[in-house]
Amino acid sequence: MEPAIQDHYPDDAAACYGCGRLNDQGLQLKTRWVSDGSGETATETESATETVFTPRPEHTAMPGFVYGGLVASVIDCSGTGSASLAATRDRGIDLVGETGSDAVRFVTGTLEVRYQRPTPMGPPLVVRGRIAEVKGRKVTVELTMTANGETVATGRVIALEAPDTMRAAG
Ligand SMILES: CCCCCCCCCCCC(=O)SCCNC(=O)CCNC(=O)[C@H](O)C(C)(C)COP(=O)(O)OP(=O)(O)OC[C@H]1O[C@@H](n2cnc3c(N)ncnc32)[C@H](O)[C@@H]1OP(=O)(O)O
């Protein structure tokens, strides 16, 4: 299995509620390259990212359905994780070992979510991300969340490389 980018965030950038591996109370989302079958070479083939999360009972909006803020959070950190995967690959950085500090860290600049249908509580939520644009320190990612194979939400994240001031504040 491809490494999860969040396992390669520096320790001082791994406390995020959505995707920080060091946040015991958080969602601990993991984002990886997957094959979307569209290309022939490994780089072309691994052109999509994937994040999978199974909501817990406390993530309920109304009985049987997932809270929209949770849906947004999963799309958000899928987007920043995808941006980090793209920038890390573009800069030729190899993710070495199970954990490390070799990933380029991104924050959310803009998050857009369109809720397409109620999200059922129970099945895993699968988010596929497509890198729409890499422009300097800015990466735009388009995302689709499915549950039981049906699209429940789509989104767009504009992610910016984390400024050092955020490290200082943390
Ligand atoms: C080191 C590890 C530390 C550790 C860091 C650990 C971070 C953990 C974060 C976890 C994830 C989160 O929850 S993040 C929390 C939510 N997000 C935030 O709080 C971010 C708050 N905003 C900011 O700090 C700032 O606005 C930034 C960093 C996003 C952008 O500032 P900047 O880096 O000075 O950007 P700037 O040079 O002006 O613009 C560069 C390009 O990006 C575009 N751009 C600028 N801001 C935005 C924006 N909000 N949305 C869309 N696009 C934007 C500009 O138009 C320009 O495009 P062009 O003209 O080049 O086309």
UniProtKB/TrEMBL annotation:
Subcellular location, principal: membrane
One BP term from GO: fatty acid metabolic process
Pfam families the UniProt entry points to: 4HBT (PF03061)
Annotated Gene Ontology cellular component terms: cytoplasm; membrane
This protein's record includes keyword Ion transport: no
Keyword Hydrolase carried by entry: yes
Membrane topology per record: Peripheral membrane protein
UniProt domain Thioesterase: residue ranges: 64-152
Record field: catalytic activity: hexadecanoyl-CoA + H2O = hexadecanoate + CoA + H(+); dodecanoyl-CoA + H2O = dodecanoate + CoA + H(+); (5Z,8Z,11Z,14Z)-eicosatetraenoyl-CoA + H2O = (5Z,8Z,11Z,14Z)-eicosatetraenoate + CoA + H(+); (9Z)-octadecenoyl-CoA + H2O = (9Z)-octadecenoate + CoA + H(+)
Compartments where located: Cell projection, Ruffle membrane; Cytoplasm; Membrane
CDD domains (alphabetical): PaaI_thioesterase
A single MF term (Gene Ontology): hydrolase activity
Entry keywords, A to Z: Apoptosis, Cell membrane, Cell projection, Cytoplasm, Fatty acid metabolism, Hydrolase, Lipid metabolism, Membrane, Transit peptide
EC number: 3.1.2.2
Domain of life according to the entry: Bacteria
Enzyme class: hydrolase
Similarity annotation: Belongs to the THEM4/THEM5 thioesterase family.
Protein's name in the database: Acyl-coenzyme A thioesterase THEM4
Organism listed in the record: Enemella dayhoffiae
Taxonomic lineage from the root: Bacteria, Bacillati, Actinomycetota, Actinomycetes, Propionibacteriales
